[in-house]
Amino acid sequence: MISKELVERINTLANKKKEKGLTKEEQEEQTKLRKEYLKAVRQQVINQMGGPPPKDNSHKEDCGCNKNKKHS
């Protein structure tokens, strides 16, 4: 879940980066927090859609091509 504190910290670091720049530790924290945020967003989308994304079944049965290759 995305907490209010997580979003506030991400925004604080983003604003500081624009104004003064970030230390190496702050850059690492920002990267970690962004990854955490994106992971939570992706999970929310998957949950709303009812599960993991469907498999790619783009191969056409009667095309006559090598079935191990995908169509372009």
UniProtKB/TrEMBL annotation:
Q: Which UniProt keywords apply?
A: Cytoplasm
Region annotation Disordered: where it falls in the sequence: 46-72
Domain of life assignment: Bacteria
GO (cellular component) term, any one: cytoplasm
Provide the protein's localization.
Cytoplasm
| InterPro entries, sorted | DUF896
One Pfam family it belongs to: DUF896
Tell me what this protein is called: UPF0291 protein CDO51_08705
Tell me which species this is from.
Answer: Natranaerobius trueperi
